[in-house]
């Protein structure tokens, strides 16, 4: 792979070559398009870890995405500075460090767009409906084997790619470079995965986006890794690192603010990352515990940015050949400290009563919603609808009704239902569930 192709600022469907403009680059346009999009705004009411938090400091998917974008931009600018010196042809074509920051910043901003309400329990609920619910299993004979694999393994990353390229979301049409950096798992759900390759831990595109992804891969000349799977775009490693840094450090911070993890424990863990720059004397001079926590978090993230950017530079050539395929945070000096944080978070945060109650409720809400809408859509467009089905479908927003009128396959119809369910905010999903179950009637 080569960087000139990997930094393609063309958009899907474009035939004309557009000059690279530094005044407001196309990568900056990508960032702006995401910020102003409807799916991005919904992230303000989607669970990160803790449901409907009362503490102002606890993060939602929106604040998490913004923070990941900031960290990713910093990582990319350090890496970009190195790449511009190493490959003079990039500067000759007008690329700057801001372009690297723009690509990764935009991809980071969009990285959670495909996540459904209630986090991972929402993902599991959608998959489980088709995999274990008799009403969901009914659809197995109505779709192809590859399409069925999409349905029984709902994946937020693939859903995100679908959202970014859906006409129903305003036609964001991001550049190939940003879409490439966004895609952490450049394979389809039906591909046989190779053990040990991080890029194949999950999948990154549905069958409905297979042609689009091949077009992306061809334009950027991504190295092929077998049928329907490719090597990662190198900048995807930076997007993943930014997410890992924010996810683990800030979840730990939130857990401390909610009283799930003692401050002294958090301080020790973050001090291990900060290293020689840590000063207990300076920490004690900070007035409040909240401020101390914020300072330590900032210093730890700064150290991790430096370590991950160095790891990227050290492995850049191997990324271009596809021989490097692991997460950057597992290769850095602070990897052991990060592992300690992950183990503590699993025990004290992700298995806390607050989180487990949210997950249990999420399963119930999402399972009932997808049951109601999937069976009603099938009844109306492929069978004979009952009055109940018609009533439920009246709850669908107009844009989904318009899309359904043009479907010619059960798979396409079910994907539109999944678009709707996964696009709900936590609060909207709960209200809709209560309405359908009869718990919430208009007065």
TrEMBL record:
Domain HD/PDEase: 57-257
InterPro entries xref list: dGTP_triP_hydro_central_sf (IPR023293), dGTP_triphosphohydrolase_C (IPR027432), dGTPase (IPR006261), dGTPase-like (IPR050135), HD/PDEase_dom (IPR003607), HD_domain (IPR006674), PHydrolase_assoc_dom (IPR026875)
Protein name listed in UniProt: dGTPase
Keyword Transmembrane: no
A Pfam family recorded for this sequence: HD
SUPFAM superfamilies associated with the record: HD-domain/PDEase-like (SSF109604)
Key words of the record: Hydrolase
Entry GO MF terms: dGTPase activity
Gene Ontology biological process terms, A to Z: dGTP catabolic process
Domain of life: Bacteria
């Amino acid at each position: 792979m080569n960087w000139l192709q990997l930094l393609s600022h063309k958009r899907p469907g474009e035939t004309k070559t557009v000059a690279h403009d530094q005044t407001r680059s196309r990568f900056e346009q990508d960032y702006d398009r995401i910020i102003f999009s409807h799916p991005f705004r919904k992230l303000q009411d989607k669970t990160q870890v803790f449901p409907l938090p009362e503490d102002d400091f606890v993060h939602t998917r929106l604040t998490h995405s913004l923070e990941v974008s900031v960290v990713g931009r910093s990582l990319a600018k350090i890496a970009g500075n190195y790449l511009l010196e190493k490959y003079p042809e990039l500067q000759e074509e007008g690329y700057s460090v801001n372009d690297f920051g723009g690509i990764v910043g935009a991809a980071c901003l969009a990285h959670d767009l495909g996540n459904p309400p209630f986090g991972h329990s929402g993902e599991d609920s959608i998959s489980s409906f088709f995999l274990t619910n008799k009403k969901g299993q009914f659809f197995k004979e109505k779709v192809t084997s590859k399409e069925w694999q999409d349905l029984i393994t709902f994946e937020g990353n693939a859903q995100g790619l679908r959202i970014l390229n859906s006409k129903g979301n305003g036609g964001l049409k991001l550049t190939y470079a940003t879409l490439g950096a966004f895609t952490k798992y450049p394979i389809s759900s039906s591909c046989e995965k190779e053990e040990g390759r991080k890029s194949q831990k999950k999948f990154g595109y549905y069958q409905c986006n297979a042609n689009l992804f091949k077009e992306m891969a061809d334009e950027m000349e991504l190295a092929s890794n077998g049928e329907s799977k490719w090597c990662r775009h190198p900048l995807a490693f930076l997007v993943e690192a930014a997410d890992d840094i924010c996810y683990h450090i800030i979840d730990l911070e939130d857990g401390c603010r909610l009283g799930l993890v003692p401050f002294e424990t958090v301080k020790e863990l973050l001090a291990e990352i900060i290293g020689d720059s840590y000063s207990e004397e300076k920490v004690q001079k900070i007035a409040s515990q909240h401020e101390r926590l914020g300072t330590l978090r900032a210093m730890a993230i700064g150290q991790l940015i430096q370590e991950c950017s160095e790891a990227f530079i050290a492995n850049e050539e191997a990324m271009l050949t596809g021989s490097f395929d692991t997460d950057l945070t597992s290769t850095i000096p602070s990897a052991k400290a990060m592992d300690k944080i992950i183990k503590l978070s699993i025990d004290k945060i992700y298995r806390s009563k607050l989180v487990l109650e949210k997950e249990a409720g999420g399963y119930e809400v999402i399972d009932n919603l997808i049951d109601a809408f999937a069976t009603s859509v099938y009844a109306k467009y492929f069978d004979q609808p009952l009055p109940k089905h018609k009533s439920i479908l009246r709850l669908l927003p107009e844009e989904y009704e318009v899309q359904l009128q043009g479907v010619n396959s059960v798979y396409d119809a079910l994907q539109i239902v999944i678009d709707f369910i996964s696009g709900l905010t936590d609060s909207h999903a709960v209200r809709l569930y209560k309405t359908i179950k009869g718990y919430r009637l208009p007065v």
